[in-house]
Amino acid sequence: MANNILVFLEQRNKQIKKSSFEAVKAASDIAAKIGFELFAVVIGDEINNIEDVGNYGILKVTHIKNSQLHNYSTSAYTDLLASHIKDIDADIIFLSNTSLGKDLAPHLCVRLDCGISTDCISLNIVNGEIIAQRPIYAGKALIDVKITSPKKIFTLRPNVFSTGVPSGTKSEVTIVNTESINLASKVTEIKKSDGKIDVAEADIIVAGGRGMKGPEHFNLIEELAQVLGAATGASRAVVDAGWRPHGEQVGQTGKTVSPTLYLALGISGAIQHMAGMRSSKCIVAINKDKEAPIFQVADYGIIGDVFEIIPKLIEEIKKIKQ
Ligand code: FAD
Question: Residues 130, 131, 137, CA angle at the centre, nearest 5°?
Answer without folding.
Answer: 145
